[in-house]
TrEMBL record:
InterPro entries: Flavin_trans-like (IPR036551), Flavoprotein (IPR003382). Transmembrane segments: none annotated. This is Phosphopantothenoylcysteine decarboxylase. It comes from Hymenobacter fodinae. The lineage of its organism: Bacteria, Pseudomonadati, Bacteroidota, Cytophagia, Cytophagales. GO terms for biological process: coenzyme A biosynthetic process. One of its GO terms (molecular function) is FMN binding.
Length: 189
């Protein structure tokens, strides 16, 4: 049995061309027995649809603070942060990395991150120059200092045509990293 079986995974998906990979990641995690709840940043639906991710996760996709504005219903970021065994943000855009590193909180994903008591895993994805920029590198270093796991961005061809680091770690590799993590902590969480 997979070490992901029965685990509760929050998957944050940011606005990045790599967001198409999040559909495969959801499928792999669910197939391994995890319960997956997807949170999209405001720009993510331009790259991958809530319908796709909701169908694959078997859960409604969360996109903002409010469920039903007329009824005053909202998505409780504290509850979500307490519910999860892990928060995985893949792809993690430069914008979201900046928000998380600096405690900015204008999206549901930002609020869940700041409320989460579970381990946090980040899979950066952006173009080469953005990834190598000193501000992005400083944000990645700060996020590591906070105790988050930041997976290295593999080198390869990027959507812009440039080549180098900035690619999102492949979904199969993310699944393997999560399997190793949960295997290492056993059933203690």
């Amino acid at each position: 049995m997979s070490s992901l079986h029965g685990r509760k995974i929050l998957l944050g998906v940011c606005g990045s061309i790599a967001a198409y990979k999040s559909a495969l990641l959801v499928r792999l995690l669910v197939k391994a027995g995890a319960e997956v709840q997807v949170i999209l940043t405001p720009s993510a639906p331009a790259f991958v649809t809530p319908l796709t991710l909701g169908t694959l996760s078997k859960n409604p996709v969360l996109q903002g603070f409010l469920k039903d504005e007329r009824a005053g219903e909202w998505h409780n970021h504290v509850h979500l942060g307490l519910w999860a065994d892990a928060l995985v943000i893949a792809p993690a855009s430069a914008n979201t990395l900046g928000h998380l590193a600096n405690g900015l909180c204008d999206t549901l994903l930002d609020a869940v991150y700041l409320s989460a008591r579970c381990p946090v895993f980040l899979a950066p994805a952006m173009d080469l120059d953005m990834y190598q920029h000193p501000a992005t590198q400083a944000n990645l270093a700060r996020l590591r200092q906070y105790g988050n796991t930041v997976w290295d961005s593999p080198s390869g061809e990027l959507a812009s045509g440039l080549a180098g680091p900035g690619r999102m770690l492949e979904p199969e590799d993310i699944q393997a990293e999560l399997e190793r993590f949960f295997l290492s902590i056993g059933t203690s969480s």
